[in-house]
UniProtKB/TrEMBL annotation:
EC nos: 3.5.3.18
Molecular function in Gene Ontology: amino acid binding; dimethylargininase activity
Protein name, UniProt field: N(G),N(G)-dimethylarginine dimethylaminohydrolase
Organism: Jannaschia aquimarina
Membrane-spanning parts: none
Keywords: Hydrolase
EC primary class: hydrolase
Family according to the record: Belongs to the DDAH family.
Positions contributing to substrate binding: L19, D61, E66, D67, R86, R132, L244
Length: 255
């Protein structure tokens, strides 16, 4: 939850063509850009250095940088996205990671793994298998990070949920925010869990970043639960990224 850096990528105009499970219309580009700018400002306000990468027209989903890498203290790992249209984003992020890290590993395949399925907590790395992340991808990641001292635990992302972290977030080393449907799978044994309020499942994807919690605006009951638990909540507009199934965690790499 303590970070000195974040990497973000500004949305391209092609974001209107981004992947979405249910089409409720294309994101409004000016609003998407404004929300993205608010997000970057909130990260910067904590004192972190935010590296803003330029838009990539060829990759409509490239604003969701979280999916293409995993940043750990020992090094960075370039992921291998399970969405064919996103595979090329991995090569785009790699040089930026090499500029920041002396160790940059890469998932070579044939497996797939996306950062949205990976929750790094105070004592382990939780990975949800999903439509985007398979056993072979996890095995390859394990071979890289176990020698670095990380324990991996593999769980299932419930069907119909894009990524494991679509439905959960880390609030502090031992506390998660999660939907009831995900917590019901039993994957958070040993953690304190704050549930999203009924009907506010779309607010489960938040991020703890230094002293603040970046949280999608428009989910008052869940926000009140976080405030009552003592968190400093910064609501950020997310209506447009949400049309592409994106949320707070997807928009940055944090390290
Ligand atoms: C996708 O389907 O890949 C994008 N439209 C959304 C990615 C969201 N990323 C995340 O949850 N980490």
């Amino acid at each position: 939850i303590r970070f000195t850096h974040a990497i973000t990528r500004r949305p391209a105009r092609s974001a209107v063509d981004g992947l979405r499970a249910v089409d409720i219309g294309a994101p409004d580009l000016p609003r998407l850009a404004a929300d993205h700018a608010d997000y970057v400002a909130a990260l910067r306000a904590t004192g972190a250095e935010v590296i803003e990468l330029g838009p990539l027209a060829a990759y409509p989903d490239s604003l969701f940088v979280e999916d293409v890498a995993l940043c750990l203290p020992q090094g960075a790992i370039v992921m291998r996205p399970g969405a064919p249209s996103r595979l090329g984003e991995a090569a785009e992020i790699a040089p930026h990671l090499r500029a920041l890290y002396s160790t940059v590993a890469r998932i070579e395949g044939p497996g797939f793994i996306e950062g949205g399925d990976i929750l790094v907590t105070g004592h382990e790395i939780l990975i949800g298998l999903s439509e985007r992340t398979d056993e072979a991808g996890v095995d390859e990641l394990r071979a890289i990070v176990e020698p670095w001292g990380h324990a991996l635990r593999v769980v299932e992302t419930p069907p119909g949920i894009l990524h494991f972290k679509t439905d959960c977030s880390l609030l502090d080393e031992g506390t998660v925010l999660a939907t009831e449907r995900l917590a019901a799978s039993g994957c958070f044994g040993g953690y304190d869990v704050i549930h999203t309020a009924p009907g506010e499942e779309a607010s489960a994807n938040a991020i703890r970043f230094n002293e603040v919690v970046l949280f999608p605006a428009g989910f008052p009951e869940t926000q009140a639960r976080l405030v009552a638990a003592g968190y400093d909540v910064r609501p950020i507009g997310n209506t447009e990224a949400a049309k592409l199934d994106g949320g707070m965690s997807c928009l940055s790499l944090r390290f």
